[in-house]
Amino acid sequence: MSSLKTVQLATFEMSLVDQGQGVPLVLVHGFPLDHRMWQAQIDTFSKTHRVIAPDLRGLGLSKSDDDVVSMEQFADDLAEMLDHLGVVERVVLCGLSMGGYISLQFWKKYSLRLRGIVLCDTRAAADSPEALANRLKMVEHVLAADGTHYVAEAMLPKLFAPGAVVRVPDAVDLMRQTILAASPRAVAAALRGMAQRPDMTAEQKKVELPTQIIVGEHDALTPPDVMRPMAAAIPGARYFEILGSGHMTPLEHPAEFNAVLASFLADLPAC
Ligand code: MLT
Predict the structure, then answer these.
(1) At 234, which CATH number?
(2) What's the domain range around 20?
(3) Least packed by Cβ within 10 Å: which of 63, 81, 221, 231?
């Protein structure tokens, strides 16, 4: 477990890990999770980097009572967090799934603060009509009696590759506990934010930063068929598929994930 600190942002208190020294590496978790999904990366990369892993607004220990949080708002929170932490040098931003949607919004607004970007198990496109309908249905359920149980039941089978319950039981259990403990209101707010996120398909080709794409071979939410075209669209992007992994690549296959990330970080040009 890493020790947590808090920073008082304009509208809420953000809880985060800030560990190690060196080039800042900001880890942005997925929906509706918190910084603990990155524990294996925090442990490894804080030996060589300043690893910053926040709990996003409303999630984990970062309590907030918004009705909707846009991906742009989450990105603004990250910029404000960096200001509060006194981080003036350019950072490497690594986001998984919803964290990837946020990373693209951060790039759009704050690209001068970035040194490189790692997009894991995510997509550039907005929700399809079917995905949008499912999201709005999830909002109704999470705010009704089923609460986060509905979210856990709907999401857990899609987060990991088949057999993960036997292979990585602790990781599956941590995700279940994290989802069940999430605030229904914050979960609904993030869902509404994702539902209205902009389509970045046309914009992704303008990413002029070192970029690494990572995806699990068996990712059921953002499969390789979605991420390969993303890698092809972003100039010079590297692509790596983690064999046997589902959506939660950093937790499910931490050694492989860390090897890809380490190689990307090692090859970044000096600022
Ligand atoms: C996530 O893992 O963050 C979610 O699957 C993203 C989404 O629901 O689009």
Answers:
(1) 3.40.50.1820
(2) 5-267
(3) 63
Of residues 146 and 132, the one with the higher pLDDT is 132
User: How many A from CA of 269 to the centre of ligand 1?
Assistant: 31
Please tell me the total count of domains within the chain.
Answer: 1
| Contact by Cβ (8 Å): 244, 219 | no
The pLDDT value given to residue 146: 84
Query: Is residue 85 pLDDT above 80, yes or no?
Result: yes
**pLDDT confidence of 158, banded at 50, 70, 90?**
very high
Ligand 1: nearest atom to the Cα of 33:
3
Say which residues have a Cβ less than 8 Å from residue 250's Cβ, sequence separation at least 6. Answer: 37, 38, 40, 41, 96, 120, 257
Best of 35, 94, 97, 248 for a ligand 1 pocket test (most atoms within 8 Å of beta carbon): 97
Nearest to 57 by CA among 143, 221, 182, 141: 182
Is the per-residue pLDDT at 37 higher than 80?
yes
Q: Which amino acid is at 91?
A: V
41: pLDDT strictly greater than 80: yes
